[in-house]
């Protein structure tokens, strides 16, 4: 078990080499940490950690083998995330030997989406497997949230059909209160009650998801794709998914296959939100039964006035417009607040949502 002194030695790195003697495993952990964090010039300038001696000789494959052997899974995921996101060690997702060893997680999925254009067919095939596993985990999690939100309002009325799942507990107790036995404190049940559960008729609605695929929006792109897939096939809801930068890619035909959808996403480039919003507005068939959700950081590279004018027109015709600065599990927004305020001023709902919250918003509208 690692002592407190050894933990501090691992945190501080080489500058604290005199704090504690390290056993073989702890020394190996130190080398693995030095290989990654020792390349950070900011830390080196503060004397917090310098690159380890033998650790600097590690290849990416060796390092990955070591961290999987030496650290718990949650720590491995953090180290892999820092490798690709803080230090741009692209071998983690472009080297087939490395890619075959990594633990699938959302950080690596984001890295795959950013670097897939660098991959040869062999690596791309391995990367697709990683994408598929992470998507499977996300769908499994999100499907529960979406299903909970989209169960719909049900009309309850007495039923002659005695089906266990439709048993009306409260109604049965109320109908038999006259048979209450004070001495035993029990209600004798003479008449049971059941209810039918008929879903309200739902008028068809549209959800148009417009997703900014600039590099900073990778997390929201992933969650938008998976959310759209979970919403696909919901009764009374037709879902569209459009990815955009300065160009527009209508990915609706791939919504049912989020892996294929994500492999078509091209992260990076400029941003023309106004153009994408005009395209989304053109898809709306029944304005008062439509939701247009723009997922972007709202740093507009196109015409801001045109964007505000288009959003205002959508709102005035009765369409619900959501301007989401983030659509992921954390819903931590980073966005142009000035432009977002202008959009809010013309009637758009502006903020950030988790996929579950978006599903709840949609469910509330289509259930009315």
UniProtKB/TrEMBL annotation:
Please give the name of this protein.
VWA domain-containing protein
Instruction: Return the InterPro entries for the record.
Output: LolB, Uncharacterised_CoxE, VWF_A, vWFA_dom_sf
Origin: domain of life = Bacteria
| Domain VWFA, chain residue ranges per copy | 204-363
Which organism does this record belong to?
Answer: Actinokineospora guangxiensis
